[in-house]
Protein backbone atom coordinates (compact mmCIF):
# COMPACT_ATOMS: atom_id res chain seq x y z
CA UNK A 1 0.00 0.00 0.00
CA UNK A 2 2.80 2.41 0.92
CA UNK A 3 4.59 1.55 -2.33
CA UNK A 4 1.52 2.32 -4.46
CA UNK A 5 0.93 5.56 -2.62
CA UNK A 6 4.58 6.67 -2.90
CA UNK A 7 4.63 5.75 -6.60
CA UNK A 8 1.57 7.88 -7.15
CA UNK A 9 3.19 10.80 -5.39
CA UNK A 10 6.43 10.37 -7.35
CA UNK A 11 4.45 10.11 -10.59
CA UNK A 12 2.63 13.29 -9.68
CA UNK A 13 5.88 15.10 -8.94
CA UNK A 14 7.42 13.77 -12.16
CA UNK A 15 4.38 14.84 -14.14
CA UNK A 16 4.48 18.29 -12.55
CA UNK A 17 8.18 18.70 -13.34
CA UNK A 18 7.62 17.56 -16.95
CA UNK A 19 4.73 20.00 -17.37
CA UNK A 20 6.43 22.90 -15.58
CA UNK A 21 8.17 25.13 -18.11
CA UNK A 22 10.91 26.48 -15.81
CA UNK A 23 13.13 23.32 -15.92
CA UNK A 24 12.96 23.32 -19.73
CA UNK A 25 13.89 26.97 -19.87
CA UNK A 26 16.72 26.47 -17.33
CA UNK A 27 17.97 23.60 -19.50
CA UNK A 28 18.40 26.10 -22.32
CA UNK A 29 15.22 25.82 -24.34
CA UNK A 30 14.14 29.19 -25.62
CA UNK A 31 10.74 30.59 -24.66
CA UNK A 32 10.43 31.47 -28.37
CA UNK A 33 10.19 27.73 -29.01
CA UNK A 34 7.66 25.58 -27.18
CA UNK A 35 9.48 25.62 -23.84
CA UNK A 36 6.63 27.47 -22.14
CA UNK A 37 3.91 25.11 -23.41
CA UNK A 38 2.17 22.50 -21.32
CA UNK A 39 -0.18 19.73 -22.40
CA UNK A 40 -3.08 21.89 -21.19
CA UNK A 41 -1.96 25.05 -23.04
CA UNK A 42 -1.42 23.07 -26.26
CA UNK A 43 -5.11 22.17 -26.22
CA UNK A 44 -6.33 25.74 -25.74
CA UNK A 45 -7.79 27.51 -28.77
CA UNK A 46 -8.63 31.20 -29.14
CA UNK A 47 -12.30 32.06 -28.75
CA UNK A 48 -12.15 34.03 -32.03
CA UNK A 49 -11.75 30.81 -34.04
CA UNK A 50 -15.40 30.01 -33.21
CA UNK A 51 -16.69 33.24 -34.80
CA UNK A 52 -18.62 32.86 -38.04
CA UNK A 53 -19.12 36.61 -38.56
CA UNK A 54 -16.94 39.67 -37.96
CA UNK A 55 -18.54 43.11 -38.07
CA UNK A 56 -17.47 46.65 -37.26
CA UNK A 57 -18.84 49.03 -34.67
CA UNK A 58 -18.10 52.38 -33.07
CA UNK A 59 -17.67 52.31 -29.30
CA UNK A 60 -20.79 53.83 -27.66
CA UNK A 61 -19.16 55.42 -24.63
CA UNK A 62 -17.60 58.78 -25.49
CA UNK A 63 -16.89 61.30 -28.21
CA UNK A 64 -13.60 59.74 -29.35
CA UNK A 65 -15.33 57.26 -31.68
CA UNK A 66 -12.99 54.27 -31.37
CA UNK A 67 -13.57 51.55 -33.96
CA UNK A 68 -14.35 48.04 -32.76
CA UNK A 69 -14.42 44.58 -34.31
CA UNK A 70 -17.41 42.50 -33.21
CA UNK A 71 -17.03 38.71 -33.44
CA UNK A 72 -20.25 36.70 -33.50
CA UNK A 73 -21.20 33.04 -33.54
CA UNK A 74 -24.73 31.97 -34.49
CA UNK A 75 -25.90 35.59 -34.35
CA UNK A 76 -24.58 36.26 -30.82
CA UNK A 77 -21.56 38.46 -30.06
CA UNK A 78 -18.76 36.46 -28.43
CA UNK A 79 -15.87 38.96 -28.45
CA UNK A 80 -15.15 42.67 -28.94
CA UNK A 81 -11.76 44.19 -29.63
CA UNK A 82 -10.29 47.37 -31.08
CA UNK A 83 -10.05 47.65 -34.86
CA UNK A 84 -6.37 48.06 -35.85
CA UNK A 85 -7.42 49.74 -39.15
CA UNK A 86 -8.80 52.75 -37.26
CA UNK A 87 -6.61 55.88 -37.29
CA UNK A 88 -8.29 56.93 -34.04
CA UNK A 89 -7.60 54.02 -31.70
CA UNK A 90 -5.32 51.82 -33.87
CA UNK A 91 -6.70 48.60 -32.34
CA UNK A 92 -6.71 49.72 -28.72
CA UNK A 93 -9.69 50.23 -26.40
CA UNK A 94 -9.97 51.93 -23.04
CA UNK A 95 -11.43 49.89 -20.14
CA UNK A 96 -14.95 51.13 -20.91
CA UNK A 97 -14.68 50.22 -24.59
CA UNK A 98 -13.17 46.85 -23.71
CA UNK A 99 -16.24 46.19 -21.53
CA UNK A 100 -18.65 46.55 -24.48
CA UNK A 101 -19.21 42.79 -24.61
CA UNK A 102 -20.35 42.81 -21.00
CA UNK A 103 -22.69 45.71 -21.69
CA UNK A 104 -24.26 43.81 -24.59
CA UNK A 105 -24.54 40.39 -22.99
CA UNK A 106 -25.12 40.95 -19.27
CA UNK A 107 -28.34 39.24 -18.14
CA UNK A 108 -29.61 42.34 -16.27
CA UNK A 109 -29.59 44.52 -19.40
CA UNK A 110 -33.07 45.79 -20.23
CA UNK A 111 -33.81 44.98 -23.86
CA UNK A 112 -37.55 45.67 -24.02
CA UNK A 113 -39.77 48.70 -23.59
CA UNK A 114 -40.88 49.26 -20.00
CA UNK A 115 -43.53 51.89 -19.28
CA UNK A 116 -44.78 53.21 -15.95
CA UNK A 117 -48.02 55.14 -16.25
CA UNK A 118 -48.41 58.38 -14.26
CA UNK A 119 -49.08 57.64 -10.56
CA UNK A 120 -48.56 53.91 -11.13
CA UNK A 121 -46.40 51.78 -8.84
CA UNK A 122 -45.43 49.18 -11.47
CA UNK A 123 -43.77 48.88 -14.85
CA UNK A 124 -45.58 47.42 -17.86
CA UNK A 125 -43.96 45.78 -20.88
CA UNK A 126 -45.02 47.49 -24.13
CA UNK A 127 -44.28 46.87 -27.83
CA UNK A 128 -41.71 49.08 -29.55
CA UNK A 129 -44.28 50.42 -32.06
CA UNK A 130 -46.43 51.61 -29.16
CA UNK A 131 -43.45 53.41 -27.59
CA UNK A 132 -42.47 55.15 -30.85
CA UNK A 133 -46.06 56.30 -31.43
CA UNK A 134 -46.29 57.57 -27.85
CA UNK A 135 -43.03 59.52 -28.16
CA UNK A 136 -44.22 61.10 -31.43
CA UNK A 137 -47.58 61.99 -29.87
CA UNK A 138 -45.98 63.58 -26.78
CA UNK A 139 -43.45 65.54 -28.86
CA UNK A 140 -46.21 66.92 -31.10
CA UNK A 141 -48.45 67.74 -28.15
CA UNK A 142 -45.64 69.53 -26.25
CA UNK A 143 -44.62 71.46 -29.37
CA UNK A 144 -48.20 72.55 -30.06
CA UNK A 145 -48.72 73.62 -26.44
CA UNK A 146 -45.47 75.60 -26.18
CA UNK A 147 -44.90 76.89 -29.72
CA UNK A 148 -44.31 80.65 -30.00
CA UNK A 149 -44.94 82.22 -33.40
CA UNK A 150 -44.32 85.88 -32.44
CA UNK A 151 -42.85 87.70 -29.47
CA UNK A 152 -44.94 90.47 -27.86
CA UNK A 153 -43.03 93.08 -29.88
CA UNK A 154 -44.05 91.34 -33.14
CA UNK A 155 -40.72 89.63 -33.88
CA UNK A 156 -41.36 86.29 -35.61
CA UNK A 157 -39.45 83.51 -33.82
CA UNK A 158 -41.29 80.26 -34.62
CA UNK A 159 -39.75 78.30 -31.77
CA UNK A 160 -40.51 76.24 -28.70
CA UNK A 161 -38.72 76.25 -25.37
CA UNK A 162 -40.67 73.18 -24.23
CA UNK A 163 -38.43 70.66 -26.00
CA UNK A 164 -34.71 70.07 -26.16
CA UNK A 165 -32.30 67.55 -27.63
CA UNK A 166 -29.10 66.01 -26.29
CA UNK A 167 -27.38 63.97 -29.00
CA UNK A 168 -25.02 61.06 -28.40
CA UNK A 169 -21.28 61.31 -28.87
CA UNK A 170 -21.17 58.55 -31.46
CA UNK A 171 -23.48 60.30 -33.92
CA UNK A 172 -21.61 61.23 -37.09
CA UNK A 173 -21.70 64.60 -38.87
CA UNK A 174 -24.46 63.56 -41.24
CA UNK A 175 -26.72 62.37 -38.41
CA UNK A 176 -26.09 65.57 -36.45
CA UNK A 177 -26.89 67.62 -39.56
CA UNK A 178 -30.25 65.84 -39.96
CA UNK A 179 -31.03 66.19 -36.24
CA UNK A 180 -30.33 69.93 -36.42
CA UNK A 181 -32.52 70.35 -39.52
CA UNK A 182 -35.42 68.32 -38.08
CA UNK A 183 -35.35 69.67 -34.55
CA UNK A 184 -34.67 73.36 -35.18
CA UNK A 185 -36.16 73.79 -38.65
CA UNK A 186 -39.03 71.33 -38.38
CA UNK A 187 -39.95 71.41 -34.69
CA UNK A 188 -38.59 74.83 -33.72
CA UNK A 189 -36.36 73.60 -30.89
CA UNK A 190 -33.88 76.10 -29.50
CA UNK A 191 -31.98 73.87 -27.07
CA UNK A 192 -29.99 71.42 -29.19
CA UNK A 193 -26.79 70.08 -27.70
CA UNK A 194 -24.49 67.10 -28.12
CA UNK A 195 -22.89 64.97 -25.46
CA UNK A 196 -19.56 65.31 -27.27
CA UNK A 197 -19.43 68.98 -26.26
CA UNK A 198 -20.76 68.66 -22.71
Strand percent estimate: 15-25%
Rg calculated over all Cα atoms: 29 Å
Summarize the helix and strand pattern as letters. Answer: HHHEEEHHEEHEEHE
Lateral strand order in the biggest sheet: 1-2-3
List keywords for this structure.
198 residues, alpha+beta, N-terminal domain of TfIIb, 3 domains, 3-stranded antiparallel sheet, 3-stranded mixed sheet, 7 helices, 8 strands, 24% strand
What can you see in these coordinates?
- The structure is a single chain.
- This protein has 198 residues and is an alpha+beta fold.
- The chain has three domains: 2-43; 47-105, ADC-like domains (N-terminal domain of TfIIb); 113-197, no CATH class.
- The chain has seven helices and eight strands.
- The strands form three sheets. The chain has a three-stranded antiparallel sheet with strand order 1-2-3. Strands 6-7-8 form a three-stranded mixed sheet.
- The protein is elongated and about 100 Å long.
- It starts with a helix and ends with a strand.
- The model has no long low-confidence stretch (mean pLDDT 86).
Short description:
Its cofactor is [4Fe-4S] cluster. This protein is an alpha+beta fold and 198 residues long.
Layout of helices and strands:
Blueprint: H1 2-19, H2 21-26, H3 39-43, E1 53-58, E2 67-73, E3 76-82, H4 95-98, H5 100-105, E4 113-115, E5 124-126, H6 128-146, E6 147-150, E7 156-167, H7 173-186, E8 189-194
Parallel strand pairs: 7-8
Antiparallel strand pairs: 1-2, 2-3, 4-5, 6-7
